[in-house]
Each structure stands twice: as C-alpha cells, then as structure tokens.
Model the fold of this input.
Amino acid sequence: MGCAGGAGGHPLTASGPVHAGPDPSPKPWEPKALRARARALLEGAEVVWFPIRHHSPACARHVEQLIHRRRPWAVLVEGPPSFDDVIGHLIDPGAAMPLAIHAHVVNTLGDGGDGDRGGDGGEAARRRGVYFPLCDYSPELVALRAGAAVGARLGFADLDYADPAWLDGTDGAHALVDEHRYAASTALTALADRMGCRDHNELWDHLVESAELDTEALVAAVSTYGLLTRWGSTGAVDPGAAAAGDLDTVREGAMVARVRAWAAERAETGATGPIVVVTGAYHTAVLPERYAADPPAAARPAPGGRRPVAGHGLVRYSFDRLDALSGYAAGMPSPAWYQELWDLGDHPRPAAEAAHCILRDVAADLRAGGGDGQPSTPGLVDAHAQAELLRRLRQRSAVARTDVADAALSCFARGEDGHDVRSALAARMTGDRVGRLPPGAPRSPLAADFDRRAASLRLRIDRASPLRVELAIHRSERDRLVSRFLHGLGSVGVAYGQLIQSPRWTSALGRDLTREIWTCQLSAETDITLAEASMWGSTVAEAVGVKLGHRLGELLAHQPTAVSLLSLVQDAARCGVHDAIDPILASLRRRIADVPDLTDVAAALVEADLLWTARRPLDGPALAGLPAVGEQLHLRACALIPASAGTAPVGASAGPGSGAPDEQLVENLRRVHHVAGTATWLSLDDSLLWDATDRLAAATASPRVHGAVDGLRWHNGRVDAAQLLTRASGHLAAADGAVGSGYLAGLLAVAREALWEVDGLLGAVSDVLGSIDDGEFVRRLPGLRSVFALLTPSETDRVAEHLGPLTGGGAAPIVRDLGEQALLANVEASAAVARRLVDDGLGAWLAAAPDGGGRG
Amino acid sequence: MTTTDPPAPSSPSTSGQPAADEVRLPAERRFADELARLLAADREPRPEGWLLSPRRVRSFLVGDPALGVTRKFYGDDPLVDRCLVTLMSNRGLLLVGEPGTAKSMLSELLAAAISGTSTATVQGTAGTTEDQMLYGWNYALLIAEGPSERALVPGPVLTAMRAGSIVRVEEITRMQAEVQDALIALLSDKHVSIPQLGDDGYVGARRGFNVVATANLRDRGVHEMSSALKRRFNFETVRPIRDPALERQLIESQAAALLAEAGLDVGPPADVVDLLVTAFNELRSGTSAEGVAIDRPSAVLSTAEAVAVTYAACLDAAYLGDGRLTGRQVGRQLIGTILKDNPDDAGRLRSYLDVVVKRRSGPWRDLWAVREELGDTR
Done:
C-alpha cells in the first residue's frame, strides 16, 4: 500500500485493510467503514461536514464541487466569528492572495490583581497576535467564494480569538491553524514510515494530492488523516470519546454552538439547502458526534462582563511566510508548487505540467547562476524522465512534490550535497508571490495611523521603490519629527525605514555629522509587521511607548547596567517618547548607589555627557533630569575608584596590551577625569575625585596606574614637568622592563602630549633603549610597540622630530613600511651576524662599523 | 548511512564457488536466500536486463518483513529511490560523500540485486589503466595467432557490457583524469570498439548495463572529474547517520554480529555504547550535550568507525583485559581512530577529554583515564 513499500495502491480506493491504529480489531478502521463515515459526513440533509487540511488544493477543489452540487443555504468555515466582517473583502474580485487576517488581543482581564506587572515584565504575556493566512487554494477561501457564487450565507465558526481560553492556551504570535498536530502525530509518522514516505507531508501528497480521488474517497482519506492524528495524540480509539486538550474542547464547543445557531435559523426560514461546515480534519473527527450529542448549552458570559481589548484587519501576506518551513508552521510547505497545481486545475495532467514548470525554472535559475555543470537541455529531459520514473516506482497517480524535488536533485546536482540545486529548488517551490488588498479593505487602526502620520510628514508611501530620505535633524523641526517617527517604527519592528547613516549621540566619533540618512520602502513586509505591531497599540505613538515600557520592564527585571538604562533613555529621546525619559532616569538614580562596577559608571558618565551635548535635536527639556544623574554618577565613581586598587595586579604580569584589569582601570580613570574636567553642565566637587585618585595611587603597585595618575596630575597642573620627569625616569630605569613600559602606557593613555611637552621625557626613554642589548630590546619591543601605537601619525612625526637630534642622526627619515615582525627579524639577523663575526675572530670589525643609529 | 553486514550464511546456496571460509562473500551470495525469496515473489514488470523489479530491489535494500528481507541501508530511503531510477535511465550513478558512509556497500547491494552479481568491479587507484577497465590481451596468444576473440582478456567493464549488468567503479576520482575519461564515450554511446578485431570489434552494451561509481570528493590525492564526465552521471550524496538512536542500534547489532563471527559471546554493555555514540556525535558536531563548543578533529568519525571501535574494544577486553568492556578500552581505540595524519587532532581529543569528559561520571571516568596514554601533545 505504500509509496514504494508493500503492496501497491491507495488504501481507500483499493480493498486492502488499514492497520495503523493501536487496535486493529474494531470495524471503524476498515476502509468500508471509513468510506461509510465519509458518505455520512457528506450526505447530511441538515449539515454537511467537510474535513480539510489547511491550504490543500485537493480539498479546495472538492469542497468547491460539493458546494456547487449541493447548493447549500449557508457555508461555515473554521475561524473566529469576529472575522465575518472581512469575508466581503476576502471574496472581492480585487483581492489577490495571499492575504491574512491578523488579530491582536490585549488581555486586560487580569489587571485588577497584578498592577505591579502592568507595563513591566507581564506586558508581553498580556499581548497576543494571531494570523489566519489564506491563499487561492485554501479550502476555506474557496468554500467562501463558491458559497457566494451559489448565494449561500457565509460565516466563520470557532472560538472567538479574544476569548480568554485562547489567551490561556497559547503563547506569543502564532497562527490560528493547527499544522503542528500533524507533524507531532505518532500515528501519522508510523504510517508514513510504513508507506515509504519521508514525513507526513509526503504521506499527505501520496494519499490525497497526487491520488486523483473522487469526493467521497477524498473525504474518507482526509477524515482518516484527522482521526489518526486524534488517535495518535490521545491514544483514544473511539472517535466520539477522543479526549482533546482543554482548548480544543472549548473551541469545538464553540464551533458546534455556531453550527447549531445557524441550523436553528435555517429551520426558521424553512430553507432546504444544507449548511456546509468546512473545518480542519482534526476537528471534524469529533464535530458530528458532538453536534448530535451535546445538549444546547447556554452562552458562556465573559468573566466580569469585561472583554479583552482586541482588533483585527486584513494584511498582505507572502508565500515565503506561508511556507511551513519558514513561517508560522501554518500551512503545507512549498506554496508555489501547490499554487501551480491549483492554477492548472483545468489541465488534463496538472501535476506533470506543474513539474515541467518547476524543473524548467530551476534549470534556468541554475544556468543563470553559472558555474560548473549547469543543466543542459538533455539534462532537463532526463529530469522529467526521472520524476516520471519516481512516480511509477512510488506508485502514485500523479507526480508529487517530492518526486520533482528528487528528480531535480538527481539530475542537476554536480557535486557533493547539491547546495545550489537545493536552494534554487527551495526558492522556486516557495515562490515570491505577495498578496494585494482589495480596494476599500479596512486597515488595522495601527496601519491607518501609520498612513496618516506618514502622509502628514510628507513621506511617500504609495510606491514600492526605495526612497532616500535625508534629515537635517539639527535645523528642521519637521525633519526631527520624521526621524522620531522612523526610529519609533523601527523600535516596534515595523519594516519601513532603514537607517543608513546618523550622528551617533553616544559616541564622540560621528557626533559632528549633522544629518540622518534613511532608505524608506513600503513592502508587504511593512503591512505584515504593522499587523504584528498592532498588539502594542492602536497608534504608532502608543505602540512605541508601550513597547518602550515593556523594554524597561525587562531591563529592570535583570539587574540592568547604568549604560543600558542610559541607552534606553537615548532610544526614548530618538523615538520622541519624552514622557518615558523621566521614569527611566528616576529608576537609574535609584540604582546608581548600588552599581558595583566602575567600568559601567565611567561608561555611563561618558554617555550622559554625550547625550547632554546632543540634547538639542533630541529635545532638550525632556533631558532635564540628566545633570542630577551625571552628578550622582560622579559621586559613585569617586566611591569606586579607590576600591579598584585591588583589581590591578602588580608588576610584570600586567604587560601593556594584555587587556589586564589595570588597563581597563586606567581607561575608567581617564573617562571620569575627562568628563569631570570638561562637563561644565555638571556642578562637581573636584576635590572628591582627586582625593579618590590619590587614594588609589597610594593603594596600588601597578606601574600603569601610577603612570596614568601622574599623567592626570601633570595634565591638570597638580605636578609640574620636572616632577613628572623624575617619576617617569625612575620607573623607566627599573630592571624589569615591564615596569617602564607599563608606566609609559598609563601615562600616554591619559596624556600623550607629555611626550613632546615634557622636556627630557623622550630623552629618558631613548637612554633606556640605548642602554639595553639587542636581546633585551627584542623582548621589550612588543610592549613598547603597543605603548606607542596609541599615537596618531602626526604625533608619531612629532616624536620623531624630537627624537632625531637625541640619537645623533639629525632629522632622520622615518621608515614607515617596516612591520614589527620585519624589525624583529632584522635585529635578530644583525645580532646573529655579530655573533658569527666574534666567533670567527673578527670582532674588531664590529667596533669599526658605523653605528646604525637609534632604534626609536 | 551504514549497512548491516551480518555474518555469512554457513552454506551459500550459490554453487560452483569455492568454500564458505572466505573472509567476506559478495552480497549476492551472502543474501542469496533473500534474493531468491524476492525473485519468487516478484510479479511486477522488470526493466530489461534486471534480475528483479525496481520495487523488489528497493525491498532488498530497505527490507521487507513479510518476505523476511532485512534492512541493509539506513537513514535515507528517498536516496534509494533516486539511485534506482537513475540506474533505469541512461545516466550513470555516482555516489559521493564522506568516507565510511557505506557508499561501496550501497553500490554492491544495488549491483547484486539488479544484476545478480556485484563482482564486476574496477577498483580505482592512481595506477588503474584503461586496459584494466575495458580489455587487455593474452600476449602469448596475441603473438601466436594475432588479434582474436580468444586472445582478448575482457576487463570488468567489457564483461558487464556484454552481460547487460551493472559494473562498479570504486573511488573513481583516484584514477587519472584521462583514464576516467575513457568512461565518457562508453556512458553516452554504450558501445566499445576494439579496432584490432576489425568488423568483429564492435561491442554494444546489452540492456541492463550501467555504471555505479563511488567517489570521495574531499579526500587528498583525488583527481578532479571533467565536466563532460560529470554530465554523464547523476550525483547522489550519501550522508552520515544523524539520528543517535538509529546509530546506536546499528552499532550494537553490527558489533554483535562481528563478535559472534569472531567466536566471542560478549556484547558491549549499554552504557558503553551510549558513551560511544555520544562521544562520536559530540566530536562530529563540535558541540557537547551540555552545549560546550569543542574543536572538531579532522579525522573521519563515521558510523563504520564507531563499529570498528566497539569491535576492537570488545576484543581488547576479551583477550587482553578481564572480559569486561569499560570506557578505558573504548578510549584507547578512540585514540587510534582520531590520531591519524593530523597532529592537531591529539590536542583536540585532549581538550575534549578535559573540557567535556572530565565532568561526567560512570564509564566516562574510565574514558577520561586514557588521557595519560595520549602522551604530551601540547
């Protein structure tokens, strides 16, 4: 019965028994019984139950035929009844699929009891977004279209998406359909294995899409698929008793209730046509029994009469999102393949023709890519033959998706793995189709607000090509508003503007740039992401504010650093959410006294300084709380600096460039002193910082820290040049070379100008270098190199100018293209030659040779 | 992917062949009874020149419990379908993939089930010549009688063309490019001319003839294939088994079969097999079960290697130890498997032992103990 295993044929068209369930004895398993069940589902006079798999062209075709044949009074498809108002737009001839109904829910029901969580960590948990994607071959859409054609009433039947049961039973953004059940079904997996299919999707193709069944056989197959999933996941054998998860039970109860309500109406009107109920096979497995058995239940009142805040709208969707492999697991894979099958509905051999199109396009794609062994025309012919032979080997009536993929892989791949073939195939099978909304379709409130604000800011949103937007944020109020709007959209994940270049407020580099440059493009992704962002609010401003509050909540829940809070302030300022700034600064002030890390405090101080400098385009008044924060940061730094002595290791282990803690400590010192010395907007007590610095110097033995402290003192006039020179010479003369280079590194990190402004400092360095032998020089070179690497090219020139006379070489030419490795190699080679000469008794030559000059 | 390789039946049903004490019988003799059962049950149309219908060949490879046919190829059934369909077409089949993924076994099984013989084989080496593939001459007869059918010594390819059967070309990329290219004309025209025989020198391949080649595209010392030759083959990549449960089952059954063949009545304990499968998977993937990143050794760590390690460790325990298999024996064999031509691999194994194995308990303690035997690798 398998694709390529066991006896051939289709289990529901041939006479073989199906042994797939846990218990083979009961009659419901037999094909005869399954067909009888299918007949009963289809032939009901009052209600026709049509089981489907979402996005199955075969189901779509047969439900269409059935509706035209039975001419029902009404068609009900699976979906929340609130969606009834978009049916008109869905079946509008101006609509092009794929489209999706997007709904968002904000659960306000629990607000009374846990006010603490409002706006904080609980925010995401209270907000949900769901999708209901539809394409041309979705049975739900086809049923609605066919129903409209025969004049039937149209509606959705399911639990409303705003129902608390949904909110409890699901999490995050997800789709309203239930594909995952099929993938997780052990029964389907076992059956696929038995039938030689690699997964349940191939099994589905084998049993349904490629099987060329009549409607009754199709319904029997699909309903069996649903039953197997049900049995597989619950272990129950009797379909009537199949227990489901709570949410499923509630949803099915809602479906039955809606069918019952419409049936009552139908009875009142005396209509003769049935109600066709189109639901996922998983639900149809139990719906008829529940419909027959359940007593009519009273409508469940919403708890406390309150309803969650909810909304829904129609959005453009795309095939790559629809693809189960990349999207929300909301449908069958490879939408472009099934679209071909659907479009070729009138073709005598649709699957063969679709296979032809796909193989042709994949071959063309590979040829366009160039490279070794592109598919030739005979190769294409071979691929067709291959697909056909695979179909026969796997005993299908028509070529299936996997046969085409296997054929392309066999015949086009010319190397290991065939990555290029796989990706070309995946791209073609997925497709790039994007839907189009019908004229007059309502946009979601957020999307409508987006349109309004974009229009008022004169941002064009009517064309698909990218638009370059340059914003003079320092000069133009309008440009500032546009910038805030675009930053805000980015912060809630809406795909519209992409920031190409901007002044970076919190980095000295780039602060002088005066303009922001954006590329703005309206795409299907914009619609989709706008729909997704709907759960944060119904206007852009609200959504941005709520999302920012949510981010603050998340930060506060996990011991935030001062820097992270300040960057949130920056984001708030950039997005124009000025109200949010004060609360963030307030929580930062509460935390500063406990910040344990000097690095964090120093970085935050620098950030605060830069933010203040850039306050004009960021809207200054909102940052009024910043000086208080800056002063507190300064105090905290003064408290932390002396305590940092213990983190600086002593002596040789802390070589320059080692990334050792004392390097970070020196950088922190530099930052704090820099801000303290330049930030006129802060009223700071200088003596506190110097006291802290002196205590640090007294407590540490790190030469680097000493170098830095001395540099800071000299720079601020607290010691004079002579004192600095004395201390520097002392360190440089130390026997351990690392002490000298460490001291220099610290000094240069805070006050590079000392090199040429302090007379004699370079001379001292040069003297030390001259006094050591080549071996010692080679050992010290890496450390020295990283010390002097801090200098800019012009500073290097300056040093060289001062150094030339000292080494007796006059204004020596500076060799710039000599790398460290080459220099080391030269020095070593020179030493080796010298050794040889001495060994050979020619040491006298060395003395006679002119000295090569200084090494600086 | 790996194939089971159970011990040979004690009395092969194929007659006319020498004794059953051969170290390894070709697949058609090892599985002679399975093939006979499949043949007896085969009611489906067969491509001309095939011994069995394609669906029965498939059953031979992936198993058919109803006929008592064992599964011999694991992990990728669609690959088997593709191979069969390729062999029905006019293109050759080229199996590529890492060493130890059972490419040769797959080609042997395909040839055995399709043609009834898997012995028409060219073993590709740097020294393989066109003569060895196609035909050579009995020089005594050639000098005595001149070129004649009697003096011709047909090679595996010519034999297979005349018989209409599958010829296997192993390690095709190890052959010199010009020798490989001798296959081009053969695969497109399906005939060979032997000019020395004049008009009688035309040999057209009978239906059922095709070529199954195997190649390792990444190994050192391989010769690039020409595009013309590549076009005449369908490439199929055979991948290592990625499912630990399946790999574990394979290692257990295959090691048990090998041990039974060696006359030993011991099987590897479950926790040691667990250790082996876990260690192989971690070293292959570069991530430990705890999510620690590991530097991957460059040595090949196929399922076949895992079987060999298990088998050798069991022999070590049985003959040199107290008969109890522990992580220590596995560790010793693991060293031999990983320390091959790349000196860095020793350091990688040591760091795996230090970083991942050291923290674990049970048989892992014994595995960690072999660290001393690694020597100084820093």
